[in-house]
Amino acid sequence: MTAFDPEKITFFAKTDARGQGVSFGIKAKDRQRHMYVVGKTGMGKSTLLENMAAQDIMNGEGVAFIDPHGSAAENLLEYVPAHRVKDVVYFAPFDLEHPVSFNVMEDVGPDKRHLVVSGLMSTFKKIWVDAWSARMEYILTNALLVLIEYPESTLLSVNRLFSDKAYRKKVVEHCKDPAVKSFWVDEFANYTDRFTAEALPAIQNKIGQFTGNPLIRNIIGQPHSSFDIRELMDNKKIIIMNLSKGLIGETNANLLGSMLTTRIYLAAMSRSDLPVEQMSMMPNFYFYVDEFQSFANATFANILSEARKYHLNLIIAHQYIAQMEEEVRDAVFGNVGTTVAFRVGPFDAEVLETVFTPRFLAADLVNLGFAQIYLTLMIDGIGSQPFSAKTLPKIEPPEESHKAEVIEYSRKLYAGEREKVNKLVDELHTPQNNPQQNQQGQKQPQKKGFDNKGGNNNYQNNSPRNNSQPDNRKPNQNNQNYQRQDSQNNEQVRRPKPPEKTPEDLRNILSKISGNERKEVAGKDVQKPEVKKSIPSQQKTNQEIKKTPQTDSKPVDLRQALADVLEKASKPAESKEQKKIDTAQEIPHISESRQSSETKPPVRKVVVESQRRMVSGSVNTDTPTDKEDKNPSSSLDLAEIKRMLRHNENEKSPFN
């Protein structure tokens, strides 16, 4: 490993002032401030990145290049010298016969786990923006956090975590993060079957897109990566990732590019364990990303703000500013040292005018020609004034190409055979059927755990019945089961049939109905008073009341006698003039009742009121008027009524 040379220059353009085409470039120490390239398609951005990466490869520098088109990656293989053939990791996912293993969840420290999960979640959110939900993000985040602690887990383990209860139990028991473990033990285990049936399929469907695709499955499904990025960075190796969207698809390209970006950042941050003196001598590692908006996530913002001190240098290029998220955009314009602008659109020109003013205006930026650029260059740690230039043409590759050798050695050192990889991935991510019986054929008891709490974790023993214990039970023909098709979830629901009625049962029912009808007919002739159910505290009193001899005729005779007496008492008081008065006017007003109460004795009033209360149920009497109160002939009758009422109450008392 050679020492870091801060004065080494990488050339990429030449001046166009006064017709003098002087080539210039950027020093290695200034490249640590990162480089940002923006411009419309076809203006020469990819050529600029290729020329700089080719010089780094030929100069023995460490390089990582992500190409979403494929052409630049193929061209860079032409520049690999003979002595660096074995230094190249050529990552081509479309090479199905020789898959390279790359597990982003492997060997992540406790302080970096949330960063990896955050990068994956931002990638998923960008890929499935139309089908994303807060519930999906919440469950998937906890799934990744619990899996990232478990050894030999991959991104494909998410679906097995949801479908294999035994595997989920082992993973959760291994988890050391109390917050993540609490989610699986206290929350997820208590989810109902209906909730899980609504929430989990959305996640399983998304992850299943990678599981069902052999192109991506054999890459991210292997538990151990084929290469160590930290080792490649320290030893100045080369990583060329050919993510041609036309060959592997945009979704797969975005996922792999984002994963590699996250792992490179983590590898750079791991250099923090080195002493300051040794860190200053570590070589630069140049990370090129073309069309970086496809892979842009929060990791880029962290690289731009933190990775400089660990000698990770970023060179990014894309077409227009609106492709960046706000967080990434703020990090780019706040931390990038060198900005290169090709021809841009009107909106981007207004934004970039703040960078190049007062030398260049928005109108100048929208009228640039092919390969013409405006830039602010970092020189010895200080940003230069804006100036114009023209990018260098494509560097001619060496006459002797080692492209075939590079691919062959890369397959031999970092790739595996397809059949072996398929077998390994299938064994690792296929749910295992846990036997519920031991060798003697006896059923093993189900242990009580977090998996047996919720409705979605119901234990179902589908193992066959032990042959050594025959089933002597006979089926009940009167309690057979039938099946009906549920219209919502197409599940078979079993319900018991009602027992069949025999002729004897029908005859008994008819006899009971006919007997009840006879009792109802007989009861119409003699109306018995309704018997109300008494509370338990009153049962003893009710039994004593029943023992006293009572006849139904006494209350009836008493009411009749009272009615006769009242009728006699009211007849002399009625006059012809009163009969003509309307019924509505017979009720005395409050004022009249007060006046009458002053003239009549108070005892007489109490007797009349009690008289009306006792007889209101059987005799309908009119309200007494002033004339009735003045009638002297009714006094004896009222005394007789009081005597009869007192005698009747004494007879009804259970204590006599």
Your description of this structure?
This protein is of the alpha/beta class and about 650 residues long. Helices cover about 45% and strands about 10% of the residues. The protein has 28 helices and 15 strands. The strands form three sheets. It has an eleven-stranded mixed beta sheet with strand order 2-1-13-10-9-3-8-7-4-6-5. Strands 11-12 form a two-stranded antiparallel sheet. Strands 14-15 form a two-stranded antiparallel ribbon. Helix 6 packs across helix 7, helix 15 runs parallel beside helix 16 and helix 23 packs antiparallel against helix 28. The radius of gyration is 48 Å and the shape is elongated.
Mean pLDDT: 76
Q: What overall form do the CA principal axes indicate?
A: elongated
Order of strands across the biggest sheet? 2-1-13-10-9-3-8-7-4-6-5
Largest sheet composition: 11 strands, mixed
Oligomer: single chain
Given the structure, what is the number of helices? 28
| End-to-end Cα distance | 121 Å
Question: Percent of residues in beta strands?
Answer: 5-15%
Helix content: 40-55%
Low-confidence stretches: 434-455, 457-494, 524-538, 540-556, 573-608, 615-636
Record field, number of beta strands: 15
Radius of gyration: 48 Å
Structural class: alpha/beta
